UniProtKB/TrEMBL annotation:
This is STAS domain-containing protein. Pfam families: STAS (PF01740), Sulfate_transp (PF00916). One of its GO terms (cellular component) is membrane. It comes from the Eukaryota. It is a multi-pass membrane protein. Keywords: Membrane, Transmembrane, Transmembrane helix. Its main location: membrane.
């Protein structure tokens, strides 16, 4: 995280009064693990609770306690956040291959909508490097309408995940896969920005290695002005990042605080200084009556916020009309992966900054979905929470989500007044801002930690596969491959099953039984392992009764239930007596047709036919 040092230095400061946001009464919390016993009236009550305006619009709860001190704190945090957000949003739009204004549209609408629907005061919704790269993966070479449709569809998927409480799906993305995914994303972005940093014309994207090779093969064509400006901006950004260390907080807190605010605004300062330099050079240098600059500029940016436009419409591409459903088909897996990554990032950030560690994940899904759906109506690119900006907001003393309103107003001011001057922002400067921002996402040190216990071998394998495939085949394929590998270990336990054996004495019995205990679940794929273990014990000590302890079983399918009855018959043929089941769930007793005895449960046997 870029602001880690500043946060550590300032967290000792009193943060003032904090307003509780979006917290439900602990006595009213529902336990989703008991939905099988929920009555019809309770289901209706839960549905009505989910439609409660105070639940879906948390601003209605905390705005009543809002006062002048909160407004001042949020104003400072919002302006500070805006100075970070504006240059980042312009730069992130370039990653997605879009004109700079689309990043500002997303920053404005994301900040504004989250004010009303957000539950974590620190979270900043807007364009991010992850969303920009995924947007480029699925919309490169296509009209801008595809980007808008992707944002709209992603928002609908996020709303559906919130409605059906599917936020748990992000748990299938393990920490090693997340690390590999973000590290590979950072490398891809750095590789893609090397061309802009050196003033080289952009080539067709052919993946990370193709892009780096293209840059290396054209080093002789690098533009001196762009190269010097880009490297100088990176050096200046790094110097400003460590500026607060010159005067520690223990020596002079006011001076340290002032230097810290300058450090937080480093992106805006570097962009502003570069734009002023470019403007001066353009207006003072002419070539045959035409103003020129020694480096490539961003170009014209469309001012203002676009009018409301419903995203569900057709688009014309090269004289051919492409319908909305056809665009959805062409976006393919992006309709799932983009919202999934967005939810993963947003929920992780919300959990990191929530004051008590409790996050209303369902409401966060609704908030993120609305940010994307409403944003797409104003031509915004896909958005999610940004960790760096959220850290800036936290360290600036934010008290409520209303700080996002001031950030949104600052972005609106930039769109309405400053867009003529955005023309002079050098592309090398934006490349430097992006490289400095995503460099902190690289987490290659995790490889050493994954190679040591308690990490599993599959953790290191998942990281390696995800990282390598992301660089070679693209981030969407790499993420799926990493998830698949990381699921091998839990699937090995669930699908294959594990069995332990021990001796035990049942209640009301002095006889020692051989106890066989299946772990976790018994599915059809694990039946053979259990059968082998049980029959091995029956052959080894046929004189001792066999007990199957079902205490740790949490799931049982039809195939396994049928195999248990057949296994009991085989045990009886070995002369080991009936197979006794203990600690069986009541529902399973009926399904398995078990008969209770003094020692436990046994399978019912058909009555022998009478001979008349």
């Amino acid at each position: 995280m870029e602001e880690a040092e500043e946060l550590r230095a300032l967290r000792q400061e009193p943060s003032g009064r904090r307003i509780t946001i979006g917290r439900e009464d602990p006595n009213d919390r529902k336990d989703d693990s008991h939905t099988t016993t929920t009555t019809t009236s309770t289901r209706w009550g839960t549905l009505l609770e989910g439609l409660d305006p105070k639940r879906r619009l948390p601003i209605l709860t905390w705005i009543r306690k809002y006062d002048g001190a909160d407004a001042l704190s949020d104003l400072i945090a919002g302006v500070t956040l805006g100075l970070t957000m504006i240059p980042q949003s312009i730069a992130y739009a370039t990653i997605a291959g879009l004109p700079s204004q689309y990043g500002l549209y997303a920053a404005f609408m994301g900040s504004l909508v989250y004010v009303f629907c957000g539950t974590v005061r620190e979270v900043s919704i807007g364009p991010t490097s992850l969303m920009s790269l995924l947007t480029l993966e699925y919309t490169a070479g296509r009209p801008v309408q595809y980007v808008i449709v992707l944002a709209f569809a992603a928002g609908l998927v996020e709303l559906a995940m919130g409605a059906f409480r599917l936020g748990f799906l992000v748990c299938f993305i393990s920490a090693p896969v997340t690390s590999a995914f973000t590290s590979a994303t950072a490398l891809i972005i750095i590789g893609a920005q090397l061309g802009n940093l050196l003033g080289l014309p952009r080539t067709v994207d052919g993946g990370f290695f193709a892009t780096v090779w293209s840059v290396l093969s054209r080093l002789a064509d690098s533009a001196t002005g762009d190269t010097l400006l880009g490297i100088g901006c990176i050096v200046l950004l790094l110097a400003l990042q460590y500026l607060p260390r010159l005067v520690p907080a223990t020596r002079s807190r006011p001076v340290h605080r002032a230097l810290w605010y300058v450090s937080l605004s480093r992106n805006a300062l570097v962009v502003l200084l570069s734009a002023l330099l470019a403007h001066h050079l353009v207006t003072s240098n002419t070539d045959g009556g035409k103003a020129t600059a020694p480096f490539r500029l961003s170009g014209r940016i469309e001012p203002g916020i676009p009018a409301f436009e419903w995203p569900v419409r057709d688009v014309t591409v090269n004289g051919t009309t492409v319908t909305f459903p056809q665009m959805l088909v062409e976006l393919g897996s992006g309709l799932v992966l983009v919202p999934l990554v967005a939810v993963l990032a947003n929920v992780a950030i919300a959990k990191a900054f929530a004051s008590d560690g409790v996050v209303d994940a369902t409401q966060e899904l609704f908030a993120l979905g609305l940010c994307n759906v409403i944003g797409s109506c104003f031509r915004a690119m896909p958005t999610t929470g940004a960790f760096t900006r959220s850290a800036v907001s936290h360290a600036s003393g934010v008290r409520t989500p209303l700080a996002g309103l001031y950030s949104a107003l600052l972005t609106l001011l930039a769109l309405g007044v400053l867009t003529p001057y955005f023309y002079y922002i050098p592309r090398a400067t934006l490349a430097a801002v992006l490289i400095a921002a995503v460099a902190s996402m690289l987490d290659l040190g995790i490889v050493r930690r994954l190679a040591r216990p308690p990490a599993l071998r599959t953790d290191l394998l998942a990281w390696t596969v995800c990282f390598a495939v992301c660089l070679v085949q693209g981030v969407e394929v790499g993420l799926l491959c990493g998830m698949a590998v990381s699921l091998l270990e839990p699937l090995r336990h669930w699908v294959g099953g594990s069995v332990s054996t021990s001796g035990m004495t049942l209640a009301d019995s002095a006889t020692v039984h051989r106890c066989i205990r299946p772990e976790v679940g018994l599915l059809y794929t694990g039946v053979d392992r259990l059968r082998t273990a049980v029959l091995a014990e029956a052959r080894r000590q046929p004189a001792l009764p066999l007990v199957l302890d079902c205490e740790r079983l949490v799931v049982l399918d039809y195939s396994a239930a049928r195999a248990l009855r057949e296994l009991a018959d085989e045990v009886a043929r070995y002369g080991a007596g009936p197979l006794v089941l203990v600690n069986v769930r009541p529902g399973w007793c009926r399904a398995l047709e078990l008969h209770q005895t003094d020692e436990g449960y046994v399978f019912k046997r058909p009555e022998p036919a009478s001979n008349g």
